[in-house]
Recover the amino acids of this structure.
């Protein structure tokens, strides 16, 4: 990887403080009754700012995300805990009643990524063959396989593609930037759409009564059990969230190692990745507890604590983005943009034809493009109780990621050599 100049601040405690002040300011102004702030947040989604402001720290060289351990801590400790706490109060029967449209939109998103890469190579090669050329480790299609892994599954699938197709480190670092920036631009559009979801649903002629019914049911459950949380309640919430995370880490290490040793062929399903098992186990523990009395902790604010953890993760993801990198290799950003457009057009066409609610389009897309770190965030932007729908689809993305990315890689290689 290319080494950047020394960042201004290298102490993670200071960086964490800066991120938390940013989040506090965003949340405080978003909750303000001031009409100016209300107008501002009517146009710019709050969640978008939680990604964008931390990215400025990287863009202006204040912090170096590669040196910082904050994303690792947030994704390994806070993300699993938030999944436990957000899933704790879920009504699984109601989630299953949402029907097959969620799955159809998710698979459409996957298909869009698989065919989008080859289509992007084909179209850009017509205009600028050098942009998608290269040989050996510098062959652009090799680097693009890592984006395919990331956009169908997540980090584990991306790493798998890097190991299999061996692009050069220089190419890989550019591809990570293309991946993050194109994905975040699409995320921005999705979040702006959340505020306009009613009009979009009218355009799709969608029936979203099942989603509204689930939201209402969860809201009523929260209201019925609502109370001012005591210190004991908050300790119980943190104990359950972080305790289940600890147990998930313990088990995931052993399960991943066992599969690696006894069934290494399962690696293509991400089943040898401890992060995959960490997400699956944390979600499963949350679901199991949703059938017990622990579900009542929702009234004391379990999902609110889970949401705080998710937003800290969001800020650390935002910090990984350097907007100025777009100018390093604009041709490859054009490839990424065309690729994403194929994914988006397919989603819109299928959503319109099956009359899918916008919620399923947004979450189905992010379960592919963002995985477990983004899908629950987008789902929760509609309503906190819908976060587990995002998680369940993202887990499916991890299982399909390496397969889908491998098929995409073969198609991209064919089209690259034919030009």
């Amino acid at each position: 990887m290319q080494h950047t100049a020394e960042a201004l601040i290298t102490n993670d405690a200071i960086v964490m403080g800066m991120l938390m002040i940013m989040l506090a300011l965003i949340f405080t102004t978003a909750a303000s009754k001031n009409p100016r702030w209300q107008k501002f947040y009517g146009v710019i989604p709050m969640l978008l700012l939680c990604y964008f402001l931390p990215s400025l720290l990287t863009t202006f060289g204040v912090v170096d995300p590669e040196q910082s351990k904050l994303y690792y801590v947030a994704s390994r400790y806070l993300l699993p805990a938030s999944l436990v706490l957000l899933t704790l109060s879920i009504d699984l029967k109601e989630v299953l009643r949402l029907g097959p449209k969620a799955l159809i939109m998710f698979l459409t998103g996957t298909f869009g990524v698989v065919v989008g890469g080859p289509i992007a190579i084909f179209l850009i090669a017509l205009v600028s063959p050098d942009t998608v050329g290269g040989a050996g480790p510098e062959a652009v299609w090799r680097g693009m396989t890592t984006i395919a892994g990331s956009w169908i599954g997540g980090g584990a699938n991306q790493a798998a593609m890097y190991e299999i197709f061996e692009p050069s480190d220089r190419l890989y670092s550019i591809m990570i930037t293309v991946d993050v920036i194109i994905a975040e631009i699409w995320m921005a559009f999705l979040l702006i759409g959340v505020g306009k979801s009613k009009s979009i649903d009218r355009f799709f002629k969608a029936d979203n009564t099942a989603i509204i019914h689930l939201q209402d049911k969860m809201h009523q459950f929260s209201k019925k059990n609502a109370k001012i949380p005591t210190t004991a309640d908050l300790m119980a919430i943190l104990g359950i969230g972080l305790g289940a995370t600890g147990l998930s880490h313990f088990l995931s290490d052993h399960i991943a190692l066992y599969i690696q040793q006894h069934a290494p062929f399962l690696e293509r399903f991400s089943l040898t990745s401890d992060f995959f098992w960490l997400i699956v186990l944390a979600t499963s523990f949350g679901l199991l507890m949703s059938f017990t009395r622990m579900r009542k902790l929702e009234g004391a604010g379990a999902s609110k604590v889970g949401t705080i953890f998710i937003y800290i993760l969001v800020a650390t993801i935002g910090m990984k983005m350097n907007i100025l990198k777009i100018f390093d290799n604009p041709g490859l950003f054009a490839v990424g943009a065309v690729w994403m457009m194929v994914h988006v057009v397919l989603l819109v066409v299928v959503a319109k034809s099956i009359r899918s609610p916008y919620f399923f389009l947004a979450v189905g897309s992010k379960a592919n493009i963002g995985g477990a770190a983004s899908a629950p965030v987008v789902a929760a932007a509609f309503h906190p109780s819908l976060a587990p729908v995002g998680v369940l689809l993202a887990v499916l993305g991890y299982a399909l990621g390496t397969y889908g990315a491998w098929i995409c890689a073969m198609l991209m290689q064919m089209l690259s050599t034919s030009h």
Q: What stands out?
A: The longest helix spans residues 231-262.
